[in-house]
């Protein structure tokens, strides 16, 4: 989602002007479009269709996992440790980090961080107290933090010790894998201006409220409530104290965002272009029309449109694939009162997975710009984390084998749909909790605005029908999909959802170390469908504590075989269309965008 770390972890850009500027061709845009570009002081960047930015607070909360939110806020409030692929390889981007060093203890049970000599835009220094402010708020409100997974940050940190204004030590509850701690946990820390934000009302005094749990809860509530007022973002004094290369100029509820250079920035990653306009569109077609009209400098086309690439290069653009460090999937809701008992049967999940022809979808539907996903580790790029079992596709496509799995377990086809006719446990029966007469009917709420997603859902519907599985498709904007398909209990009215899809550009973009603690550990912050397997929990725990390469391989194998979700082809993040002369950057495989790096080279 980024979604999710989405939620929590990723996505894209801005815009200006009016749809009327280029006539009815742009009637699908929502954020407005600038006049044809020509100014070297601005860049018009197209956000993914229907990925409307809706959050500014540098603390993610459920329902605000659109990864564009994270990229926008990081341009204004730099992370403690920016771990990204902005230079072409995934690593620590020190130019856009507030920390300059992280020294682990020999026993891997603590780390001492050094801050750079940096200042907020109001002139106040960035200090250890600003990091402690974030730490205190997250510890006191962790269950409301979208990135929280029990047993992970902030639970892994037992104390925060200030050494001086630019040095502090975080102590851990045990020894951890350094790579995981740095890339996955410490990279989540967002340094926030304690001297400006540690209060409970607009007119209230700033004090050390965060240092008590009760005070931290009140400050959290104040900041989160302010974050819900999108139309006030540009005028609210809260959001004017920044540390990053950009500050906010405007933020529209329709999705248009304008960032302007922070003249007070004193870090190593200063902006090259004064203003960035992030443009929002309801459909890819509307965005492509904006490219043709010359009102977008950095946009994208559908994979299916690669055949007309020349029509864009003739207009002064070049086309580049943007591959991602991600996996794509549809989560099951294992707590859904209707289908949850069916989803909990491994044979049923195997039958569903065998009904997905990933190779054909990747080659035909995505025009070769996607790769199959057979498990929890990204497969689009070589890595030491990928097991041979996952690479080998444990459940190859076969409708006939999928049907046999169901009929061997007590299902009989009636009027084209499989029905449980042998309830109960044991061989030849439907399994625990599956009642007699249960029909194999699944509903998905899928992201709208993507032709590839629409076509894939239709293809899946046809294939599932061959197996005897009914598949109903409903669509909604991605923010709505994310907000309607969260964790729930079976008796919760919000637990009606069965399947969810929000991955037209990839469902989950990992940090550098692709541990599944947030996604697949019991109670994980982005474990939307409440998947739970004690053995998998043990394997995930080992990936975070052991330095052995075998830990990730065992995890990769286990989840390729246990199918916590429906694995689907992983598409390129996007097929980018970039105006000639715009450069100075690499396309980050973690799906962040980094506007400070963009520059007009000619």
UniProtKB/TrEMBL annotation:
Outline the extent of the Solute-binding protein family domain: 97-525
**Record's InterPro entries?**
Peptide/Ni-bd, SBP_5, SBP_5_dom
Where this protein primarily resides, as one coarse class? other
GO biological process entries: peptide transport
Q: What do the Gene Ontology cellular component annotations say? A: ATP-binding cassette (ABC) transporter complex; cell envelope; periplasmic space
Q: List localization entries.
A: Cell envelope
> One GO molecular-function annotation for this sequence?
peptide transmembrane transporter activity
Say if the entry is tagged with keyword Thylakoid. Answer: no
Top-level lineage group = Bacteria
Keyword Electron transport carried by entry: no
Keywords in alphabetical order: Signal, Transport
The residues forming the signal peptide are: 1-35
Q: Which PANTHER family match?
A: PERIPLASMIC BINDING COMPONENT OF ABC TRANSPORTER, PERIPLASMIC OLIGOPEPTIDE-BINDING PROTEIN-RELATED
To which protein family does this belong? Belongs to the bacterial solute-binding protein 5 family.
Provide the protein name: Peptide ABC transporter substrate-binding protein
């Amino acid at each position: 989602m980024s979604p999710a770390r989405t939620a929590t972890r990723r996505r894209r850009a801005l815009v200006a002007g009016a749809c009327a500027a280029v006539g009815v061709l742009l009637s699908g845009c929502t954020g407005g479009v600038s006049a044809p570009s020509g100014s070297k002081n601005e860049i018009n960047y197209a956000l993914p269709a229907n990925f409307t930015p809706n959050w500014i607070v540098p603390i993610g909360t459920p329902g605000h996992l659109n990864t564009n939110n994270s990229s926008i806020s990081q341009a204004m409030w730099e992370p403690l440790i920016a771990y990204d692929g902005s230079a072409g390889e995934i690593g620590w981007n020190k130019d856009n980090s507030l920390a300059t060093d992280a020294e682990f203890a020999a026993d891997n049970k603590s780390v001492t961080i050094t801050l750079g000599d940096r200042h907020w835009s109001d002139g106040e220094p960035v200090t250890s107290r600003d990091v402690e402010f974030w730490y205190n708020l997250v510890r006191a409100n962790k269950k409301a933090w979208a990135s929280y997974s029990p047993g992970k940050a902030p639970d892994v940190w037992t104390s925060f010790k200030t050494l001086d204004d630019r040095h502090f030590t975080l102590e851990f509850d045990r020894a951890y894998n350094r790579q995981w701690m740095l890339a996955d946990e410490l990279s989540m820390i967002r340094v926030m201006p304690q001297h400006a934000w540690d209060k409970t009302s607009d007119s209230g005094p700033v004090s050390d409220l965060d240092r008590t749990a009760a005070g931290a809860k009140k400050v959290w509530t104040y900041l989160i409530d302010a974050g819900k007022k999108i139309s006030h973002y540009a005028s609210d004094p809260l959001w004017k104290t920044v540390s990053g290369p950009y500050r906010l100029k405007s933020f529209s509820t329709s999705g248009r965002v304008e960032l302007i250079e922070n003249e007070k920035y004193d870090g190593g990653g200063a902006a090259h272009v004064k203003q960035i306009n992030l443009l929002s569109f309801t459909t890819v077609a509307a965005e492509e029309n904006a490219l043709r009209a010359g009102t977008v400098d950095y946009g994208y086309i559908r994979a299916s449109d690669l055949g007309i690439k020349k029509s864009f290069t003739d207009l002064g653009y070049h086309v580049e694939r943007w591959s991602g460090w991600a996996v794509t999937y549809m989560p099951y809701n294992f707590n859904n009162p209707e289908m949850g008992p069916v989803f909990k049967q491994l044979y049923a999940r195997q039958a569903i997975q065998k009904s997905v022809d990933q190779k054909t979808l990747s080659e035909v539907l995505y025009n070769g710009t996607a790769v199959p996903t057979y498990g929890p580790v990204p497969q689009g790029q070589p890595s030491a984390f990928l097991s041979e079992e996952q690479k080998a596709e444990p459940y190859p496509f076969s409708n006939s084998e999928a049907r046999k799995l169901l009929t061997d377990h007590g299902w009989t086809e009636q009027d084209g749909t499989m029905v449980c006719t042998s309830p109960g446990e044991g061989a030849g029966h439907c399994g625990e909790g599956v009642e007699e007469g249960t029909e194999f009917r699944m509903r998905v709420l899928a992201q709208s605005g993507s032709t590839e997603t629409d076509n894939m859902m239709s293809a899946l519907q046809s294939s599932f029908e061959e197996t005897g599985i009914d598949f109903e498709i409903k669509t909604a904007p991605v923010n709505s999909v994310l907000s309607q398909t969260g964790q729930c209990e079976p008796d919760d009215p919000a637990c009606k959802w069965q399947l969810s899809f929000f991955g037209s550009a990839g469902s989950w973009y990992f940090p550098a170390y692709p541990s599944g603690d947030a996604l697949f550990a019991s109670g994980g912050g982005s474990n939307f469908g409440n998947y739970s397997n004690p053995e998998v929990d043990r394997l995930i725990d080992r990936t975070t504590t052991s330095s052995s390469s075998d830990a990730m391989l065992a995890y990769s194998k286990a989840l390729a075989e246990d199918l916590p979700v429906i694995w689907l082809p992983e598409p390129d993040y996007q097929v980018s269309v970039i105006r000639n002369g715009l450069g100075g950057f690499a396309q980050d495989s973690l799906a962040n965008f980094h506007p400070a790096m963009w520059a007009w080279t000619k």
